[in-house]
Automatic annotation (TrEMBL):
Pfam families: Ig_2, Ig_3
Low complexity compositional bias, start-end: 904-919
Record InterPro entries: Ig-like_dom (IPR007110), Ig-like_dom_sf (IPR036179), Ig-like_fold (IPR013783), Ig_Fc_receptor (IPR050488), Ig_sub (IPR003599), Ig_sub2 (IPR003598)
Keyword Plastid attributed: no
GO cellular component: external side of plasma membrane
Signal peptide annotation: 1-20
Positions of the UniProt region annotated as Disordered: 896-921, 984-1005
Keywords in alphabetical order: Disulfide bond, Membrane, Signal, Transmembrane, Transmembrane helix
Protein name: Ig-like domain-containing protein
Ig-like domain segment(s): 27-111, 119-215, 222-311, 314-394, 427-489, 491-575, 583-674, 686-772, 775-855
Compositional bias of kind Basic and acidic residues: 984-1000
């Protein structure tokens, strides 16, 4: 570096450092959101902007949302007292010194998310809900999808009466900071049902109460035992189940109660669908999966003892002990199948999800230890898998095993074994009803019970109705001599949801409960949601006028006779799903949006993720002015029933932009207007063509593009318009420059992708072309449809190489058809070649897809090869005719009486005296009529070939007219010539058009053959052939 340049460099470095130090001092604000970035509708939310800069005591703040240029607030803190979904977005702030010129930078954007649904507290228990006195337990409360800023409270739930509860705040609930409530040593009085709730913000925003969790704490020596028959924790469906409370002195003061997973509340055994309480024994005559839950013994004073977890499951179950296993004992597990005479299965056994023994009929642990505690299940490869059962292992020294307790244990084990052996081979009775299951009042009906078992000669029968525990007959057959409605079984209600099970926020939704039972004229209904014990409605129909996400859930109903004692069973649950987003109609077109007059087309309207109960309407979209549109309902929109609107034969006036909309319900609930679909219908012979330069459908970015409307007469009345996915309908003046009928885009951008067409002053639209602007790699393909039989050449072009041709792979409809070539050539195009084409270079990238349309030839449909061969044969035929006439002429001349008469006078400014003499001689012979022959032949042949449907250019390929007239030539010897004159009739037709006569747009060429004879020197004739 020269020394003369050093001061300049130092100066630039100094300026750079000064500027750098100055810009580094511009502070950047920090945005905080309280209580959290993810909040729920209705919460109070505060945005705060903090700017730290030395020397600035006061700032003026500006808040912006979603990169908007309009400040929404000028305070340091901005508070939403009741936040809604519309407040969600990205927020940033900016500051300016109040009494100075300093400004801050713009802060980073911070996203505020607002959930439409209510926050849900979820309660879980660790390590488990089954405890022994002294065990630790932790209640864990969390808010789904949110973890910031919440404080928690815990409650016990007490059942006051049917469907009435009391929530008691735990006195030491402050121990629940951080979402965990821990009991280090559980006592018997900790047994109960627990819930939690969360809150945050100021004023406080509370979640609803969480799910319920049942915690059981069992003493070392419980005063009563719950005996289960059959003696296992898992049971099949549709079987009988007995549970009894047995203590050492008096079992009459104890009753069986339960807490089921499906209902989530405490209830008596008799409240089961088929349960009945007799003394201290509860009998379920027909088990169902809803009977799964916790059962225990409860005294009249409210003491709870000996909980047992019962699971009801179809097909495959695990036979495992009801009560905890003592260390050192033997544990036997079996896998049972319901529909088999010998229920034992050869199966795989699992502990805590891991395979521990495979393909055996039973699993035996000879000496149980604490390590064997866990969840066990079994699985048969064909029959299925059992539920999991928790097996608890207890230290034997925790039990006070006096002789009396040992005696009772042995007695229970003996009864259990006898009962187990008896039930393993139990036959299943078969019930028949005669004359039929559906009868009429007054008929005689007989019920019969048949039991088949080897070695049993006589049975004692018990008949039960609707799950009652009281037998009403002990005979094999029971007869109703005159049956009434009260003898019928309990009906099962049916729940329907209208308009559909999947609805959108704001729709009107109606739940309906239908119960069919003969003889019952009026029912009292009860509606339940999500297995809640609280009925929320007593009407047959319950309507949500504007449904929200909180109304989503599982609904079922129940009925009781208003003026009688009959009741129904519980209906099946029906799920109502509510979407927070608005329903969106989507419009598609089949088979395609590019049509020719007469083609069929179908508009298909669908609602995303919903298909039930919608009716549809179709509209055309008209641009009134910038950003203003008009939607016109199609007059025959009723043809769109079922989501399809079909036009069997498209006409030119069907060209336009279409949308659809769906509605359902009463009052009507409408979707938003769908996406737009542009349909083009092109005539067979359009009066104008859209010429694209460069002549291809795909173009690079940042290049010039010219589009011109050209017709045969006047192109000044046409303008270029376009439709793009982003901006809709636009004139050329918006996106280019219009000069006459030409529109020029000086520098293309990707937003120029769209459909371009020519439009007349009267609004006629013709010749649409799909233009795509894409960077880097494009496909060179023809703008207009290709005619069958023509040659099609495709190339892959890259913007930044010279020449732009790439060696690439070519695809049709997504499938590779030619690889690693600079161009793809289809020598003879057919209709099967129609489709979407693209190209791909392994390094440069891939082009967009272009639709290539193939059009059939009209008219005679002549193949170019056939035309060429035919034309050649005609020329050969004319030459043969000429030679034959020449031969005849020579023969006639030899006879001295035959001559040729010249038809066309040869024009030559340098005619000789010999020619004048020849003409005089000819006239003399003609006047004498000495053997005169005048033959005239006129031959005309015309071909018509429509090159393509869009252009429909009629071309006269060949028209020959041949005229021969014999002339008389004098002289001893002759050289004969023929003259064929080609004349275009185009000028003649133009002259006729100027006179007001119309003619067909075709070029006709006439060929004239002149035979002339000239007399040469030495009295010899020169005859020649000339083509003009």
């Amino acid at each position: 570096m020269e020394l003369s340049q050093l001061p300049l460099v130092l100066f630039l470095v100094l300026i750079s450092n000064i500027y750098s130090q100055y810009t580094e001092e511009i502070p950047k604000p920090t945005v905080t959101i309280k209580p959290a970035q993810h909040v729920f509708r209705g919460e109070t939310v505060t945005l705060r902007c903090d700017i730290y800069a030395e020397g600035v005591s006061s700032w003026r703040y500006s808040w912006y949302k979603d990169s908007s240029g309009n400040a929404s607030s000028d305070q340091q803190e901005h508070t939403f007292s009741y936040v809604t979904e519309s407040d969600a977005g990205k927020y940033s702030c900016y500051g300016g010194e109040r009494e100075g010129s300093r400004t801050s930078r713009r802060s980073d954007e911070v996203t505020l998310t607002v959930s439409a649904s209510d926050p849900r507290a979820v309660l879980s228990v660790s390590p488990q809900t089954w405890l022994t006195e002294g065990d630790p337990v932790t209640l864990i409360c969390e808010v789904n999808g949110s973890s910031t800023g919440w404080t928690f409270s815990w409650f016990t739930v007490t059942v006051l009466s049917y469907n009435r509860y009391r929530y008691d705040l735990l006195s030491d609930s402050s121990r629940g900071a951080g979402g965990n409530y821990t009991v280090s040593s559980a006592a018997l009085n900790h047994t109960g049902v627990y819930v939690c709730r969360a809150k945050r913000g100021e004023p406080a925003y509370n979640t609803p109460h969480s799910n319920k969790q049942l915690i059981w704490v069992t003493g070392v020596s419980p005063p009563v035992s719950l005996i289960v028959r059959p003696n296992r924790t898992q049971h099949f469906t549709s079987v009988s189940l007995s549970l009894s409370c047995e203590d050492q002195s008096n079992s009459t003061e104890w009753t069986v109660r339960k807490y089921t997973d499906s209902w989530r509340w405490l209830e008596d055994c008799s409240s089961s669908v088929s349960g009945s309480q007799t003394g201290s024994t509860c009998t379920i005559t027909d088990t169902i999966p809803y009977d799964t839950g916790v059962y225990w013994c409860e005294s009249e004073s409210g003491e709870k003892s000996h909980p047992v977890n019962i699971t009801v499951h179809p097909d495959v179950i695990l036979e495992s002990p009801v009560h905890p296993v003592i260390e050192g004992e033997t544990l036997t597990l079996r896998c049972l199948y319901q529909n088999k005479t010998t229920p034992n299965l050869r199966a795989d056994f699992y502990k805590d999800g891991s395979l521990i023994q495979s393909q055996t009929t039973e699993m035996i642990i000879s000496t149980v230890s604490k390590t064997h505690e866990g969840f066990y299940s079994c699985k048969h490869r064909a029959r299925g898998e059992s539920p999991k059962s928790w097996i608890s292992v207890t230290d034997m020294f925790k039990f006070d095993l006096n002789l009396f307790v040992i005696f009772n244990i042995l007695k229970l084990l003996l009864i259990s074994n006898i009962y187990s052996q008896h039930t393993e081979g139990r036959p299943k009775p078969t019930v028949t009803i005669k004359p039929a299951q559906h009868v009429f009042r007054g008929e005689t009906v007989t019920l019969r019970c048949d039991i088949y078992a080897e070695g049993v000669s006589s049975w004692r029968y018990s008949w039960y109705k609707d799950g009652s525990g009281n037998a009403f007959s002990d005979q094999q057959e029971h007869t109703f001599s005159s049956v009434t409605e009260s003898d019928a079984g309990r009906p099962k209600p049916t729940v329907t949801i209208k308009p559909a099970q999947h609805v959108f926020r704001g729709e009107t939704v109606t739940l309906r409960c239908d119960i069919y039972a003969e003889g019952v004229s009026s029912w009292q209904y009860s509606w339940y949601k999500d297995s809640s014990g609280n009925a929320f409605s007593d009407q047959q129909e319950h309507t949500f006028s504007s449904v929200t996400e909180s109304d989503a859930g599982k609904y079922f109903c129940y009925g009781g006779e208003r003026e009688g004692s009959r009741t129904s069973r519980r209906s099946d649950e029906v799920t109502l799903t509510v979407s927070a987003s608005d329903p969106r109609a989507v419009l598609s077109v089949s088979p395609q949006t590019w049509l020719t007059e007469g083609d069929p087309v179908t508009l298909i309207c669908e609602v995303i993720s919903s298909s039930t109960g919608w009716t549809f309407s179709w509209f055309t979209k008209t641009v009134l002015s910038y950003n203003r549109y008009r939607y016109d309902l199609l007059s025959d929109s009723s043809r769109g029933a079922g989501g399809n609107y079909t036009v069997s034969s498209a006409a030119l006036n069907h060209t336009g932009v279409y949308v659809c909309r769906a509605e359902r319900g009463e009052p009507a609930y409408n979707t938003t207007i769908s996406n737009t679909q542009l349909i083009w219908v092109t005539g067979v012979s359009p009066p104008v063509s859209l010429i694209v330069r460069p002549n291809r459908t795909q173009h690079f970015r940042s290049v010039s593009l010219s589009l011109s409307c050209e017709d045969q007469s006047n192109s000044t009345g046409w303008t270029v318009r376009r439709y793009s996915d982003k901006y809709g309908l636009e004139d050329c003046s918006v996106w280019g420059s219009q000069t006459g009928s030409s529109c020029t885009i000086r520098s293309t951008i990707t937003e120029d992708t769209g459909v371009y067409w020519c439009e007349s002053e009267s609004g006629e639209k013709y010749h649409p072309v799909n233009i795509t602007v894409h960077p880097d790699v494009i496909l060179e393909s023809p703008v207009h449809p290709v005619t069958e039989g023509e040659t099609l050449t495709l190339r892959c072009l890259y913007q930044f190489t010279t020449p732009p041709n790439l060696r690439a792979d070519f695809y049709k409809d997504g499938s590779l058809i030619q690889n690693q070539t600079t161009e793809m050539i289809i020598s003879t195009v057919s209709k099967s070649h129609e489709g979407f084409y693209s190209c791909k270079h392994r390094e440069r990238g891939e082009s967009p897809k272009s639709w290539i349309s193939v059009t059939a030839s009209d008219g005679l449909g002549l193949d170019p090869v056939i035309v060429g061969v035919t034309a050649g044969l005609i020329v050969i035929f004319l030459i043969i005719v000429f030679l034959v006439l020449l031969w005849r002429y020579r023969n006639n001349k030899g006879g001295g009486s035959q001559s040729l008469s010249r038809v066309s006078q040869h024009q030559n400014s340098s005619q000789t005296s010999e020619q004048n003499q020849s003409e005089a001689g000819n006239k003399t012979l003609m006047s004498d009529n000495s053997y005169f022959l005048n033959n005239q032949i006129h031959l005309c042949f015309t071909f018509h070939c429509d090159i393509c449907r869009t252009n429909s250019v009629k071309t006269n390929v060949l028209l020959f007219s041949l005229l021969f007239i014999e002339d008389i030539v004098s002289g001893p010897t002759e050289l004969t010539y023929a003259e064929i004159e080609l004349k275009s009739t185009e000028k003649q037709k133009k002259n006729k058009e100027n006179k007001g006569k119309s003619s067909e747009s075709s070029d006709t060429v006439y060929s004239k053959l002149n035979l002339e004879t000239h007399q040469a020197a030495g009295s010899s004739d020169v005859t020649y052939a000339q083509i003009k």
